[in-house]
């Protein structure tokens, strides 16, 4: 230790290191947030969560939709904008114990009312709208969006 070294001499180096790492983390978080905001076109805070997965030749969108039947859901693709919406009433679904699908009894608590949602998502690259598929199973909606084949030959466009 140097003769004139004080107990706070290393503090300046530590603060520089901390500042450098905090700035790096902030830039990383900012770019991640910017990417997410370019993809999510929904105006309101999402009540229904989704995942967008790139599987090479296909984008897969997974959406948690517990309690929604296939007929409660709508999926539309317009260009690169994917809209997923759901609308259901709050009536109890038939349980295994109630094979007739009827709800008998007095409700002591009713929290499952009319519920609807709508999410819009910008797909990162053009997709083949004719080959898009959607299926719902065990409370998860899966939308498969095959990417357009970019290896198609270039074709000239005549200018009139």
From TrEMBL:
Lineage, uppermost ranks: Archaea, Methanobacteriati, Methanobacteriota, Stenosarchaea group, Halobacteria
Classification via InterPro entries: A-crystallin/Hsp20_dom, HSP20-like_chaperone, Small_HSP
UniProt-annotated stretches for the region Disordered: 84-105
Signal peptide: none
Domain SHSP: 39-160
Family classification: Belongs to the small heat shock protein (HSP20) family.
Domain of life, source organism: Archaea
A matching Pfam family: HSP20
The name this protein goes by in its record: Hsp20 family protein
Source organism of the structure: Natronorubrum aibiense
Family annotation (PROSITE patterns): SHSP (PS01031)
Extent of Basic and acidic residues compositional bias: 86-105
């Amino acid at each position: 230790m140097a003769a004139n070294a004080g107990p706070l001499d290393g503090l300046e180096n530590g603060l520089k290191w901390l500042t450098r790492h905090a700035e790096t983390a902030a830039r990383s978080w900012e770019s991640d947030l910017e990417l997410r905001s370019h993809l999510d076109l929904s105006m309101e805070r999402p009540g229904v969560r989704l995942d967008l997965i790139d599987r090479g030749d296909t984008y897969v969108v997974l959406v948690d939709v517990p309690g929604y039947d296939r007929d409660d859901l709508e999926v539309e693709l317009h260009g690169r904008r994917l809209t997923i919406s759901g609308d259901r009433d709050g009536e109890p679904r038939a349980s295994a114990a109630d094979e007739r699908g009827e709800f008998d009894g007095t409700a002591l608590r009713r929290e499952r009312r009319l519920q609807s949602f709508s999410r819009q998502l910008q797909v990162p690259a053009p997709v083949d709208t004719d080959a898009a598929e959607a299926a719902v199973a065990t409370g998860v909606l899966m939308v498969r969006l095959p990417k357009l084949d970019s290896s198609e030959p270039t074709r000239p466009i005549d200018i009139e």
